[in-house]
Write a structure and sequence with these properties.
Number of helices: 18
Family: Belongs to the SELO family.
Distance between the termini: 34 Å
Keywords: ATP-binding, Magnesium, Metal-binding, Nucleotide-binding, Nucleotidyltransferase, Transferase
Strand content: 5-15%
Oligomer: single chain
Largest sheet: 9 strands, mixed
Cofactor: Mg(2+)
Number of domains: 3
Protein name: Selenoprotein O
Organism: Ceratopteris richardii (Triangle waterfern)
Length: about 600
């Protein structure tokens, strides 16, 4: 990777702007939720009144009224105001392939856990390991291994859950009150009808092929079909060892599980495609972890989070088979056919139409069309990450979804002071491969590995690979230009204006979120004096020299001349939502005590 101020380029001839030269866009928040906490013993809130829950909510929407809850729980409750109800139901990624399309708010028939409509297509239709469970090993000629959760529990407790996510599954909210719920979703007791397995995949880690990786501590319980015909997978993260655990223990700690639970749901309500989180359960047992990687491991509370997605397939799921024998190479096509059938069915219809009308065939290759759609979804996803200042931190190919979802929340972070080279991953600090500015480049690089896999399986040609990869760059810039113009109230995209703004923000380490929100106070005026121009953003500039003030004044003059009209404070603030700040997700949630510093 070159310097962060350089232009993007790749051997695929896709050329984009490096992100410090590209626009930043804050998405409008299409929903609102509050987190209300009544933590279970021994997880207590010091100083908290027994009569009142501690809440954390995103303004400017008004907070929801606390609903009646069973004791010893925390839950995410959706704002039920008529104005926001439909928008809050935004789908992270519908079966139609449209990213961020709001779903219907019509209530479906709710089910008990015993009534889940299981449909285990992944296990039924794809080759599996001939051996169930067992020790860590290389698993050949298979997409998965059947395993059973093995996490040890001592009086497990339900800590938090999402009503919104439960609604996707047609799950009756009263099920969260079950005495055995924590046992079922820690993996200590198997859900009736489930068929647990761990997925086999490989991946490039930090640019180097790492061979077999797989689900080392995540166990998929199976797939269900809801009343809308949508397919959802339930997966327990931290439920025990699998053949893919390598030297790890297969468990997770409460600290990282809370981060994943909160961020999964926050990203969904920011309308950023993501896996969801149904619930969070403490195991009652301790797990030893070296939190700061400084040679001082300590015991931490163990936990299991239930993740939900239409599929957990990632680029590495296809790579592993292309990297092995000819028999495994054939699995690449089997797996692509599977994912197209269940998650991109419109591409099958294109192929069927061509076969039925051979004389007027369009000549479309459904595998190329699939690559193009994966590229487009990935482009939209990463554009939206950049918009809210989200940095994934470990964008290996095994952590990139082929459905265009944010997946595997590990060492992620959000920007405070604008720094294009920011990375939340301490192991990435020397080269900063996965820093904020590099994410669009990495998205392209990962797609190149997918294209290579498809070429090795003879599903696409070199020329078709170029076509698919080129679409990534085109779609990324389409998304950016449209969103950034709306963000700043501009009639049309202005690259120079955005470049100068980002340059000023980086130079003065201006708070990323607050700066854009402050611009909501700017009024279009041609006769404002210099000092008045800075008043709207004075709170984010802090101490600046005369030279730096002049740079900001010059930019403000350009901006006020080009803004369409008096920018509505409410509109700008909805396009620049408050997000979970970096400090919320980086060590400031501590246990015991459940401290949230916001």
């Amino acid at each position: 990777m070159g310097a962060c101020s350089s232009y993007w380029s790749a051997s695929s001839s896709v050329t984009l702007l490096r992100h410090s030269q590209a626009p930043i866009f804050f998405l409008r928040r299409f929903g609102h939720y509050s987190i209300h906490v009544r933590p279970p013993s021994p997880v207590t809130l010091p100083g908290a009144s027994a009569r009142r829950t501690r809440g954390f909510s995103f303004p400017p929407m008004r907070a929801t009224q606390s609903q009646t809850q069973p004791p010893n729980t925390a839950r995410i409750m959706q704002n039920e105001s008529p104005d926001n109800q439909q928008q809050a139901q935004a789908s992270c990624n519908g079966l139609s392939g449209e990213v961020g399309t709001p779903t219907s708010t019509v209530k479906s028939t709710l089910s008990k856990l015993e009534e889940i409509n299981w449909d285990h297509s992944f296990v039924r239709e794809l080759p599996g390991d001939t051996r169930e469970g067992g020790p860590v090993r290389q698993v050949l000629h298979a997409c998965y291994t059947k395993v059973s959760p093995s996490v040890e529990v001592t009086n497990p407790k339900l800590v938090s859950w999402s009503d919104s996510c439960a609604e996707l599954l047609d799950l009756d909210p009263s099920e969260f009150d079950r005495a055995d719920f924590a046992f079922l979703f820690s993996g200590a007791t198997l859900l009736k009808g489930s068929l647990p397995y761990a997925q086999c995949y490989g991946g490039h880690q930090f640019g180097y092929w790492a061979g077999q990786l797989g689900d080392g501590r995540a166990i998929t319980l199976g797939e269900l079909l809801n009343t809308k015909g949508e397919r959802w997978e339930l997966q327990l993260k931290g439920a025990g060892k699998t053949p893919y655990s390598r030297s790890a223990d297969g468990r997770a700690v409460l600290r990282s599980s809370i981060r994943e639970f909160l961020c999964s749901e926050a990203m969904h309500f920011l309308r950023i495609p993501t896996t969801r989180a149904l619930c969070l359960v403490t195991t009652g047992n301790s797990v030893v972890r070296d939190m700061f990687y400084d040679g001082n491991p300590k015991e931490e509370p163990g936990a299991v989070v239930c993740r939900v997605a239409q599929s957990f397939l990632r680029i590495g799921s296809f790579q592993i088979h292309a990297a092995r024998t000819k028999e495994d190479l054939m699995i690449v096509q089997t797996l692509v056919d599977y994912v197209i059938h269940y998650h991109f069915p419109h591409l099958n219809r294109i192929s069927e139409a061509d076969e039925a009308n051979s004389s007027t065939s369009s000549g479309k290759n459904k595998y190329l069309e699939w690559l193009i759609e994966v590229a487009e979804r990935t482009a939209v996803l990463i554009a939206k990450w950049q918009g809210v200042g989200f940095t994934h931190g470990v964008l290996n190919t095994d952590n990139m979804s082929v459905l265009g979802l944010t997946i595997d929340y590990g060492p992620f972070g959000f920007l405070d002071a604008f720094d294009p080279k920011y990375t939340p991953n301490t192991t990435d600090l020397p080269g900063r491969r996965y820093c904020f500015a590099n994410q669009p480049d990495i998205g392209l690089w990962n797609l190149m590995q997918l294209a290579t896999t498809l070429k090795e399986a003879n599903l696409i040609s070199e020329e078709e690979s170029e076509i698919g990869l080129n679409r990534y760059g085109e779609r990324f810039m389409e998304e950016y230009k449209q969103l950034m113009s709306r963000k700043l109230g501009l009639k049309e995209y202005n690259r120079d204006l955005i470049n100068k703004l980002l340059s000023n923000m980086a130079f003065d380490k201006v708070d990323y979120t607050n700066c854009f929100r402050a611009l909501g106070n700017v009024k279009s005026s041609s006769d404002a004096v210099d000092e008045d121009l800075l008043k709207p953003i004075k709170g984010v500039l802090l101490e600046t020299s005369k030279e730096r003030k002049k740079a900001w004044i010059d930019w403000m003059k350009l901006y006020t001349q080009q803004v369409i009209f008096l920018v509505c404070f409410y509109c700008i603030h909805n396009l620049s939502p408050l997000i979970p700040m970096r400090l919320l997700f980086e060590g400031h949630i501590s246990f015991p005590g459940f401290m949230m510093h916001v």
